[in-house]
Structure formats: structure tokens, C-alpha cells
Amino acid sequence: MAQNPEVPTGYFMFPIHPGRQNYLAGSMGEIRPNHFHGGIDIKTDQVTGLPVYAAADGYISRIEVSSYGYGYMLYLSHPNGLTTTYAHLESFAPAIEQYVLEMQYAKQAFDVKLTPGKNQFVFKRGDIIAKSGNTGGSAGPHLHFEVRDAKNNLQNPLKYGFTEIQDDVAPEVVAIAFKTLSIDARLNNLFGRQELPAVKNGPNSFVLRDTIRANGLLGLEFNAYDRYTGAWNKNGVQEVNIFVGGKPHYTHLLDNIPFDYQRMVSWHVNYENLKMTGKSFQKCYIDDGNTLPLYNTGSHKGKLKINPGATYPVTMQFKDSYNNTTTLQFIIQGTLPISAHTLAKTVKKQQINYEVSEDILKIMALDTGSAPKNINLYIRNRRYDLVPSYTVQSNSIYLYDLRGGLPDSLVFNGTTKKFYFRQIIPSGTDYSYADNHLALQFYPNTIFDTLYLRSGYDAGIWSINDVLTPLFQPLKVTFKPQEPILDKTTAGAVWLGWGNSRAFINGTWKDDQFTFTTRNLGKYKIMNDLKPPTVKLLSKSPTLVRFKVGDDLSGLTSYRAEINGQFLLLKYEHKAALLYSERLNKSVPLRGELTLWVKDAVGHETIFKTRI
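Given the sequence above, the corresponding C-alpha cells read:
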């Protein structure tokens, strides 16, 4: 990787309240639901409209305006090859503001991406280039500030020596998690994942209360946070180092993240746990399919190979951007697991459940008997006897490596349970699957690692694995409805997410099959959007007109306003569902017949007319 230019101390000016202590709402590399945070979020006193200063000499190389994402955003390119970006702005410097407005009218669109000439908007360090805001996907007033290199890699702005942000507070460790990564691995005689709270035993020092007794291949995860001096909110940890027996074992540093790899955060963290609990545990090993350039490990990729009889003293270091350091220490004792016990006779009803962990199928059988029983596993009508790997009270645990073949069903003590495994989908290649209910097209970057595909169809609902399996790039899906869809023009796929949440996805119909792309696995159904968008006039005057708009299911896709037959720009604030006007010529009042057209994703159109 090419080295970034040396930047002298003081080259960049802090863009908000320069020279005064400030605070961050978000730090570089923080874990977000579907991406790494790619810069710093600077607090703006809970207000909008603060002056935003050019961090260094440069020219505006790109301007973006959108109701979503970064909202109003400026790219300021500097002579040393770095670019600073400023997002969620309320407005631009007057000359830029007028240029953007003229281009919006020329393109007859609110959302624009513009690349002005190199000499069109030139600024000196400390010039005011914008006002801070809360536009786009922002959840509150702040400035999102980035430093990008010539390859569009996101750099940690704090490494450039801003004195406005003060930090003498070391990170805090909340918990550590261990995960078994091989079929023979055990943690305290169990297969799976275990979380253990970190116990503070001194300034910037934590331990685990007990020795970890383990065997086989383990993965280590952590949950920790950092705070800045004088701030209450929690931020991310910048660097993690692990030493085993005093020797370096693993490092990751969130200071340089390729922009196009931000979504790979879903493989850097324990995604399933994040979605189930909201708690972010970062892996301290490189999982198969993770190509982020953040790590420094040996051939073991950070995984811990624990041998019986050996003792492994482990020290973890957690650092923030100012090198405040916290340590956590614990001991792993290699121990041969105990594999079988007599079952406790406390269960009156037999139960069978299963889960997939990496390549391993884990079957849990709650047994009413006193002695463990074998499971009959059926693969393509051939029977295999699966012996218990171990027992816990009345539970027998069976482990099976799915790379040996996908099972169709199991029989346990007279009870049959059917699996819905369809195919083993390899990563890194184009791969197709089809059956009577659906067809799937995987691309080289759709999945992170091998996927043990499960799918089903029942009462109009398709299932594709579950919401706990992340995708990196989109998956192409074709549904084959069993019942005729009478009105295909208003029908689309609806992803049934968490709780009552749902997301409409448009696509294309060919004959009686519906094709779309998605970044989410889980449950889907075909639904019709039967209602047109809603439009409510909030206010009108010769200077401003405001509307509240909405849609029942598929969502708004376009809108257009004209006054006396001439285009009128409407700005869209999706968080408040507001449309409001912006005149090109402020000396010309809004008078006459105003018409607003609003369309949703299936083509329903609402036309609203009023006279000003």
C-alpha cells in the first residue's frame, strides 16, 4: 500500500470552533449497524448553522446534495493529495450555494452530484465554506468530518494532531467472548460461544475472574468503549493488541479503512450477536472471507490453538487515538474436555433444536431418559449414527461437520425433525441455485464465506436462511409465486425484518416470476401497494410553500413541482417527510397555479394543485 504524504503538525485546522476545546459524538472506525464509521462526528452545541472552516488550502472538487446519507456534503482537495470532506451541512458558502441552486434548476432535481472546475471554488485554510447542519441520515446536529487519501481510503483525522479534542481517559473493557472454531474445541467443556465480564482490578487494568479451561481452536472477541475528556458519550476503541505468553499474537488498528470496504464491518464483528443483543463484539481473529487491511497476525490469523496440558497467559491492550492504554489479562488452561455424563431425570417432554456455527451443525436434544442416545442422521436417504459429543444435565449435544454432506433429516428416540438445507454455496465465485419456489444468483462478493443455504416456502412466505447472516454485496432473487398475482403492476417483494419492520423492494416481473436484488436474507412475501402517496399542504406564501408527504408501503421515488408551468425546486427532508420550496430568483414571488406530482415505487401518482 502506498504511503500517505507526511502532514506537518498544524497543517489541518479544526473545522468547528478552531482553537477551542471541542467534543466528538463519533470516532473513527466506530462500529455502526452496517459499516465502519469513516471519520469523526464533531458536536455543534446541539444547534445547526455554526461556521464550518476549511481545514487547509484547497479547492472544492465535489459537491453532493441528498435527502439521505451524507445530506449536504463538500469535498475539499488539498495540494498534498489528501481530501477533507464535510457532511450533514445545513448550507454552503454563498458562491457554492448559488452554483448548486443553479445546477439543481438546470437538472430539475434536488439530489445532485457535482464536480466543479479545479479553479472554480478555491479556499484558504480557515475560510468559511459552509454552515453545520443535520441533513441526510444524521440523527442530530453535528459535522461529519473525514480525511481521505488519493485512493479514497478513510484516514483517522485525529492522527493529524488536533488540540481541540482532549483525551486523557483510557478505554473501558466491558466483556470478553470466546468462540469455539473447530468441532473438537471446547470452552469449560462446552461447544459454542461464552461471554465473560471484565473485572476492574486497578487503574486502566482488567482481569477475568476465573481461568478459562479450553481445548482446540478458539476465537476471541471483545466489547469495549472509550470516552474523551469531559464527555459522557461512548466512542470506539482505536487499536487492539494481543500477546500470548508475552509474544505478539494479534493487532488491529482502525486508522485506515478503504471506503468500499466499510460494509465489511459485518464480518469484523460478531454480526449475529450484534443483531440479537445490540452489543458490539469485535473479533480478534481474521475470519475466512475478511479481506480488510486492518490486521497484523501470523499464519494463525489471530485464532488460538489450545493444547491439553499447556498454559496460555494472555494480555490484551486497548488503545485510543491518544495512546491511552488499558490492559486485560487472563489465563487459558489447556484441558481435555469431559465428554459424557449421566442424564438428569428432570425432563418430561422431549425437545430437539439445532443451530449452525461456522461449518458445524450443533444439535441439542432434551431427553427424558437416563442414558444418552444416538441420533440417526439421514443424508440422501443414507443413515448415519451420530453419537453424543457431550451431555449437560438432560441435554445431549451432537456435533456434525456440514462439509461432510448436508443432512435431510434426523430421527431421535422416535421423533423426526426435517432440515431445510438446500446446497453448499461457495464464496468468491458466481453460483446459481433454483428450485420450484425460488432461484438465487450469488456473485463473487455476495457472501463472505461458505453459506449452508436453507430455504423454504410456506403460506406465501419465502425464507432464505435468516436475518442473522450478513451479505457483503447484493444477491439476485427470483420468486415463483404458487398463487397467481392478479395485479403485478403494484406488487413487489417485502422483506420481513425485525419485529414489525418491513422494507419494500421493487423489481421486475417476467411471466409469473418476480426478480429483485437484496442485501438481506430472511423472510419475504409478495405484497401489493394499493394506496397512492399522501400530500398535505402545510403552508403557502409568495416566498415559501411546504408540504408533508408519505406513502403506505413502497415508498416515494419521485416528485416534481411547477408553478405556472415552470419548474419549482422542492427540497426533501425525509426524516420529517417534508418538501419545501427554494426559488432560483428570490425577487420573483410565488404566485399563480402550483402543481405537485408525487410518485411511489409502483407508479401510483398523487397530483396536488393549489393557487398562491
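Residues 94-107 form the longest helix (14 residues). Try to locate this feature in the C-alpha cell string yourself.
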